[in-house]
Amino acid sequence: MSTLTDLVPGLEEAAAADGMPTVYARLEGLAETGRALRDAGFVVLLDAVPVDLLAAEPRFEISYLLLNPGGNGTPPARLRLKVRVPGADPRVPTLSGVWSSANWAEREAYDFYGIIFDGHPDLRRILMPDDWEGFPMRKDYPVQIKEPVKTYSPMQITAEEFVANIDAARDRVNR
Known about the structure:
With 175 residues, the protein is an alpha/beta fold. The chain has helices at 2-7, 30-39, 102-113, 159-174, and strands at 12-14, 22-25, 44-52, 60-68, 77-85, 91-93, 116-118. The protein is 25% helix and 23% strand.
């Protein structure tokens, strides 16, 4: 992995419990770092996963999951590129110009976490209604569930009623 940090300046290696190589990039140089990694063979962005670390600052962290499919004698490789995002002004340069698959993931991060991606071509809500207030995946989002928890309860009918219902359903189908 040291060759990757030599190739792309500003990367900081990090240990990962799952064994996937992980590096941190500086927020202000994220787009340039993305282009350098793409040119180094990581041509596939699988996902961008934000995390709210509410008590910490920077508050947010985004993990970009990258893939180098290999070829021409080089083996396939995976890489987790992370960037820390401040909570006071959660802004990140868009990577949709580097990897087109970042478009959807960045819109989803905006929709659920309120992270703004500067330069994104179509940054708007994608899953929540347009009039939704707030960002529901933030840890400080007010949860207001007032309904009691619904649990499974078996149907209370007799065996004769059950058979009659089945026969009635078959009669409707066979007409």
